[in-house]
Amino acid sequence: MINILLLLAAMMSLTTTAAYSEPKVTYIEAPKFPGQIYLYGEPKKADVDFEQWYEIEGRGQFVRNVKVPTLIPYLPEVKNSNGAAIIIAPGGAFLHHTFGSGGYEAAEWFKSQGFATFILKYRVEITPREEADYQAYVAEKMAGYRAGGLSGNYAPATPDYAFEDVNAAVKLIRSRADEFHIKSDKIGIVGFSAGALMAVYNAESAPLECKADFIASIYGQLVMRDMPEKLPPMFVAMSSDDELSGQSGFEIIQAWQKRGIVELHLYGQGGHNFGMGHEPFTNYLWPTEFLAWLRMLEIIDQPANEAKIKLNNGLEMPQFGLGTLRSNVEQAHDAVLAALKAGYRHIDTAHAYQNERGVGAAVRESGIPRNEIWITSKLWPTDYNSGNVEESINKMLERLGIDYIDLVYLHQAVGDYMAGWRGLEKAVKQGKIRAIGLSNFDVKEELFNDVLSKAEIKPAIVQIELHPYAQRKSFREKCARNNIAVEGWYPLGGTHGGNYILFKDPVILEIAGRYGKTPAEIILRWHVQEGFSTIPGSRNPAHIKQNISVYSFELSESDMNKIRALDSEKRFFTSTWEEIQRFNDWKPED
What we know:
Layout: H1 4-11, H2 15-21, E1 25-28, E2 37-38, H3 45-49, E3 52-56, E4 60-64, E5 70-74, E6 85-89, E7 96-98, H4 100-112, E8 116-121, H5 131-148, H6 160-175, E9 187-192, H7 194-205, E10 214-218, E11 234-239, H8 251-257, E12 262-267, H9 286-296, E13 308-310, E14 316-318, E15 322-323, H10 329-342, E16 346-348, H11 356-365, E17 374-379, H12 381-385, H13 389-400, E18 405-410, H14 417-430, E19 433-439, H15 445-454, E20 461-465, H16 473-481, E21 485-489, H17 506-515, H18 519-530, E22 533-534, H19 541-548, H20 557-564, H21 577-580
Parallel strand pairs: 6-8, 6-9, 9-10, 10-11, 11-12, 15-16, 16-17, 17-18, 18-19, 19-20, 20-21, 21-22
Antiparallel strand pairs: 1-3, 2-5, 3-4, 4-7, 5-8, 13-14
Helix pairs in contact: 1-5, 6-7, 9-19, 10-11, 10-19, 11-13, 17-18
């Protein structure tokens, strides 16, 4: 039983278009898939050879007349595994499989994100082998369905054999979880079109040992069926102008909410069969939104970031950190806990932020050994103006609830900064601080030069405003000559003062579209590849997890150069030197 909506989904890439543009169909030899797994044991050669593989000009590969169901594995290196598995169920109206964007491309992307990924080549309807006969067969079906009219109110039937295949796939992967380096309770199905129906049917009706732990319905028809009382989490992505899935209503979403977790992403345009998404539509965002959703549900965790920057005193500092500016004690506590769980090992705070107590509490509650977490704070000018830096450092240690601080900056280049620097040097010798640096001393380079010329312990790192619009090349070159590391604040271009302007830059948007990433991810990846330390701030757990995912992909040198070309030394912190002097007059609370 094939539903007209599913048939139309298939024919959008075949018969319907053929009536106008007559795309070229070329039959090809079956591709070789190393490590292919037969779901039901070694098959008969004649059944395997019965498959028909072909290419449609401009639309990729297809296969029909599948008698032998298989899993095609795309496995990441063990060190990159996130512990979860994805079964990709391609679309094709149960007449064929579409192996393009919703097949090969999807598999490669999920593999790059650390998933043990498997394309499920499930059984489909047996159709006439000759192309002309097949076209006539499909046309006859479509004519009959069109005569009956379209409706989104009836439930299409997933063929029993396809349902059996997706259930068998889940069961097989679960039974071999150790071999695939995954957890047996973290197996999901990502279904496209007809494959989405299979995913939903599995979630609703499969026996427990065959039921996926989460599913994604990508432009699948949303239809109501009998539902159990409890359902696994479901992610839905579709276009409102999809003449197939987009017209089927949202009853299932409302019903699913009562029985489990569901998230709906309804894009304004993009039609059907958009695979992993494509510009100019915004549906290209669904893969990263799906990834963020999985992290939010704690189905996957971002592995601890291992990227380090070696400082001039021999210490190694985690490159990627969490900034806590504009977070109160409670907000900082929650954000730091979320960050440490997501794999961050570098937390940046300051006396002036007045949230050190929340940061320290989260570090203690995390259960992560103290020596695995790099904690940065900053001394405020009123602390070094007093000449009593030692007392200020002791209070900082008390607020954080720790025995030593990994890095302390002089926060601003005002007041008696050399007295402050001498106090930091003393704290290093006492073992209270491991590294010391300068924050915002680029405001007057002569002050930076003054510290360099007089320091007994050279600054290990400087912290400055740094992002694609203000790349600070001259100052960075000076730091490099003096073997001083650089860390950037406002790495996303001033999401407060800058009004998210970098997120709207056409170059950033174009690159993000090609990589299937958000503008924030592209910008942060640029920072990482340039070798800076970066500390984006966020209080949103989903954003916190998404930010550190930048280690899962790499920008080409061409794209790096496109971002480098955006430099105009446009800064978003624009206070004058006279205005900065006010920092001498305000004292943070202890």
